[in-house]
Amino acid sequence: MAGASRPVEPTDVSGGGFSPPGIRCGNCRTAAIISRSSLHLDPLMLDPALLRSHLADTAARLRQTRGYALDVATIEALESSRKQLAMQTQELQNRRNTRSRAIGQAKGRGEDVAPLLAEVAGLGDQLKANEQALAEAQVKLAQIALGIPNLPHDSVPVGKDEADNIEVSRWGRPREFEFSVKDHVELGERHGWLDGDAGAKLSGARFTVLRGQLARLHRALGQFMLDLHTTEHGYLECNVPVVVNADSMQGTGQLPKFEEDLFATEVGETKRYLIPTAEVSLTNLVRDTIQEADALPLRLTALTLCFRAEAGSYGRDTRGMIRQHQFEKVEMVQIARADQSHAQLEEMVGHAESVLQKLGLPYRKMLLCSGDMGFTAVKTYDLEVWLPSQQTYREISSCSNCEDFQARRLQARVRNLDSGKPELVHTLNGSGLAIGRTLIAVMENNQNVDGSITVPAALRPYMNGVERIA
RNA sequence: GGAGAGGUGGCAGAGUGGUCGAAUGUACCUGACUCGAAAUCAGGCGUAGGUGAAUAGCCUACCGUGGGUUCGAAUCCCACCCUCUCCGCCA
């Protein structure tokens, strides 16, 4: 459920297939990847050192863990020309600066500056050409770098797809029904509670209308989760934009690589995107900031709508509201110091588990293998809830540690207490939980033989004490 | 939508073509004075890249963003973004 959490396909970045989308920065008309870095930062996602000093090793690790083909030769060529151009440019700038200063001083003394001017003739054009060539090399490198996925943590099992994920634990026992279970669609359609046709009429496939008691139960779930995280888990409730600019999408890694998964709006010249998860809004809050070390970890939560184009999943989960273009989710985000981020990940998974436990929903906790993890993550746990109608566990939460991968794009830093120097923070995100899927799980697991649904005790305060909806 | 003002270092605030990466104040750090503190005095105090063993020097870039003029731009020109004030409209 995390942003850009679909598996990354092997990509040859040098091949004709890779064409960077024409992203426009929210604040200007130039490509976001250029503007954000001002071309003197390395707009990379991985530590630049990994692509310079340890390129071969990095390529091997990416291939082994992610099935990702890094074009070593192209990067090496670009990097060496970039480096040479950078040094030449600096030298030219140095020459221009010293000469110009001399001209200024000579003028101040009333001397003739003509010979000095002659000396500097042509320097400007040369410098301009150099700067342009340097910018081109940097953009090319950035385009490659922005498409490289994160390297998995050592504790992550190497594997190809979801079949290689590891079950860490299970909680609760699937209920044994003495009648034949109905799925959430059948349960919901009885009273017009859940209306896919109405959703299709208004918007199209993968949109749903909820009504009556079920709409209320849906609302109750969001309130319950938000209250739990803010009062018991120490999160700061945030209300954030769900329409964001390209810089934000690039900061958390949705752009440039996953544009086709996003809904977008265009008003005049300005293109904005609908968030696929509140991870985008919450994590971007620390973009271009330097946090104080003792303020970390930051724990942020928000209940928002999420929008996903679901491109490339046309045949999957077409029935009901498992996979929607629009859904609600309570998201947890933590901004942590490097030395604490993995402990924070364990804590955050616990927060998501606590929601399921309080609702009495059986689930299992999976450690994702390297090939099944999202683009930005170094380590991900998925929580999968039991769905009686499918006799299987389905993803309902995904909690990831991105370490400094997003932070590097975001320039989100923390001041080291000892050295006083800024260092990249680590960012974590997790669903706590996806509300639509939680609603499905509550309906199916708590159904009665007459089609009514028992409201979990934890939700009754949010349902005016109602114990059963029928 | 109309009219106007403005974006400079953590904050405040100078600077309208030439040693300006940027005065000054304030905050912060170090030292002196003090039993200690306050006050006072002296010094330091941005981020990033390159080159260094170096958290030393030296070089380069950064004054909302991008582009232009110029030997030289915080300063002049153009476009855009954002903020504020007034009017209109709107939940």
Q: Topology of this protein?
A:
Layout: H1 32-35, H2 48-52, H3 55-66, H4 72-108, H5 114-120, H6 123-145, E1 166-171, H7 184-189, E2 194-195, H8 196-202, E3 209-210, H9 212-231, E4 236-237, E5 243-244, H10 246-251, E6 264-267, E7 270-274, H11 278-284, E8 289-292, E9 298-307, E10 326-336, H12 341-359, E11 363-367, E12 379-387, E13 392-401, H13 405-410, E14 412-415, E15 422-424, E16 426-434, H14 435-445, E17 453-454, E18 468-469
Parallel strand pairs: 4-9, 8-14
Antiparallel strand pairs: 1-11, 2-3, 5-7, 6-7, 9-10, 10-16, 11-12, 12-13, 13-16, 14-15, 17-18
This protein binds one RNA strand of 91 nucleotides through residues 25-30, 34-35, 38-42, 83, 86-87, 89-91, 93-94, 96-97, 99-105, 107-108, 113, 116-117, 119-121, 123-124, 269-270, 290, 419-422.
Characterization of the model:
Strand 14 (412-415) and strand 15 (422-424) form a beta hairpin. Helix 4 runs antiparallel to helix 5 and helix 9 packs across helix 14 (435-445). The longest helix has 37 residues, at 72-108. It contains 14 helices and 18 strands. The chain has helices at residues 32-35, 48-52, 55-66, 72-108, 114-120, 123-145, 184-189, 196-202, 212-231, 246-251, 278-284, 341-359, 405-410, 435-445; strands at 166-171, 194-195, 209-210, 236-237, 243-244, 264-267, 270-274, 289-292, 298-307, 326-336, 363-367, 379-387, 392-401, 412-415, 422-424, 426-434, 453-454, 468-469. Mean pLDDT is 87; it is low at 1-43. By secondary structure, it is of the alpha+beta class. The chain binds one RNA strand of 91 nucleotides through helix 4 and helix 5.
